[in-house]
Here is the input.
Amino acid sequence: MIFKMTYQETKHEAPRRENTKALYIEASSKVEARQLVEQNTPYNIEFIQPLDEAHLAYEQKNPDFKLTVF
Here is the structure.
């Protein structure tokens, strides 16, 4: 399953909407997705959202869409 994860690049500052970024990751569950990101980045994870087929198709239309692989 593909998950969309919104995050802040640092854990040392208060989260601000203007600094929120997104990445897309393939994992079997939300727990696995969180573990992969926490083990490989210093990101402050805000939200993890599973993408159904329609939402994934919409997100893939964005030119910045890229599946992150660790």
Q: What stands out?
A: The longest helix spans residues 30-40.
